[in-house]
Fold:
Amino acid sequence: MSDNPLLRRLPASPDLSGADLLDRFLDYAAEKKLELYPAQEEAILELYDDKNVILNTPTGSGKSLVATAMHFKSLAQGHRSVYTCPIKALVNEKFLALCRDFGAENVGLATGDATVNRDAPILCCTAEILANHALSLGADAPFREVIMDEFHYYSDASRGVAWQIPLLTMSRSRFLLMSATMGAVDFFQRELTKLTGAESTVISSAVRPVPLEFRYVDDTSLDAMVQELVEAKQTPVYI
Structure:
């Protein structure tokens, strides 16, 4: 049996329906003892119905699991998928996580600094790498499923164009746009539908499933404070 929990749930044939693939993914979530939050469940259902999804939920609300569900659907149907975000360290982190779930042979990395298995069915890359694909190939870009994390960078004066180009050219793709800090998204919903011909759904929630607690410390060393929080099982810790 494969050590990669999603890889061993891939069907032998790419012809399974979205509903059948959804059952397989939910079985994975149950094995991992993951109980889906309402926004996660709604987003995954819409993706498996072949819709574009704009997911605007707080940090810590499980957007990564929704992205993993999209990668699984894509791989199971014989497609290629791509995950992008603006920070190379996060791209590297996602690459390692997806290797654990899908097997290293199925996951590639391209950041400009490093390239590994770039023709794999799942590619983790910076937004600029995807933009280059979109510029050169347009609708013929090889990625059927596109996941754009930290999508609020769309409005960044210096880098936003890298988020904009795929949304203007990759008409055969399905998109998952994710951010914790998006404003009004009616424009993107309308334009995604116009570009791809597929329905686009907005899923928003202000509910933070994992609450944040704030603490200000003056006379305790950083190491001692972190140790105290770890022992009290108040993790993860953001400093």
